Amino acid sequence: MRTAILLFTSVFISGILFGQDSIRKREVSVTSTFKPVLKEAAKINFNATPPTADTTRPRLQYNIPNQNLVLGYLPGTLKPLALGVDTGGRWDNWNYAKIGYGSLNTPYFETGLSLGDGNTAGLNIYGKHISSKGKIEHQDYSNTAVELNGFLKAGKNIELFGRMIGKEDKYNKYGYEPKTLVLSEDSLKVNLQTFSTRIGFRNIERGQLGISYAPELQVDVFNDRLKNR
Predict the structure, then answer these.
(1) Strand partners for 130
(2) Which helix (H) or strand (E) element contains residue 23?
(3) Are 138 and 174 in contact (CB under 8 A)?
(4) 153-172: per-residue pLDDT in tens?
(5) Which residues, other chains included, contact 196 with Cβ-Cβ below 8 Å and sequence gap of 6+?
(6) Is residue 18 over pLDDT 90?
(7) What φ, ψ does residue 71 adopt, rounded to 5°?
(8) Tell me, what's the pLDDT at 11?
(9) Between the chain's N and C termini, which has fewer beta carbons within 10 Å?
(10) How far is Cα 178 from Cα 156, in angstroms, rounded to an integer?
């Protein structure tokens, strides 16, 4: 029995080995290399021709509306009005004075005075003076000015007003060359005088015809040391 088994095993193994030798191995034979190639695509040829030029002038129609404005109302008229007299102001008799003294012998004085009640009569007085004397010969001057402003109620609707101004300027010509020159005082002095006055009257309130008047007279006078006017 043991001998039979071994014999069968040997025969079976031999049969297997013999069967394997009879099968041929799979092989692939390459005879040439592969080269991918794209076929040429078919092209469509367009024969484009430009359109013919349009030489005819077009006629353009424009509808322009009427520029005239038709308003349903009439504009109002402007009538300028004169500024009325401010009756709400309060009259106060304010007075002031300024006094000073500076270098180069320079005195200074200024004042302002108010007189009257402001209703029936009023007067304002202004005054100013300054002078100086420098270190250079003939380097001195002085300026003086006085001004009066007043009014007077002469009637129920009439007011008188006036103004007076007086100025005087004095100085000398200096700094001439050469300094050895000897000049008289008359040729160096300069004296200028100015006088101005204005008087008039006016109606305080307009009359029945709405007329307002204020005539006035003004006189200006100028004088110097050389009698030029």
Answers:
(1) 108, 143
(2) none
(3) yes
(4) 988 889 999 999 999 999 88
(5) 163, 164, 165, 166, 218, 219, 220, 221
(6) no
(7) -95, 145
(8) 46
(9) N
(10) 69
- The domain ranges of the chain are 132-224
Q: How far apart are the first and last CA of the chain?
A: 179
pLDDT tens, residue by residue, 101-158: 998 889 999 999 999 888 889 999 999 999 998 888 888 899 999 999 999 998 888 9
Q: What's the length of the chain?
A: 229
Name which of 219, 156, 217, 220 is nearest 194 in CA terms. Answer: 220
For residue 110, the SS3 value is strand
The pTM of this model reads: 0.54
Contact 201, 187 (CB under 8 A): no
**Alpha carbon 224 to chain centroid, angstroms:** 45
Strand pairing report for 189-203 and 216-224: antiparallel
Q: Which residues contact 44 (CB under 8 A, 6 or more apart)?
A: none
210: left (phi over 0), alpha (psi -120 to 50) or beta: left
Give 138's contacts (C-beta < 8 A, 6+ positions apart): 172, 173, 174, 188
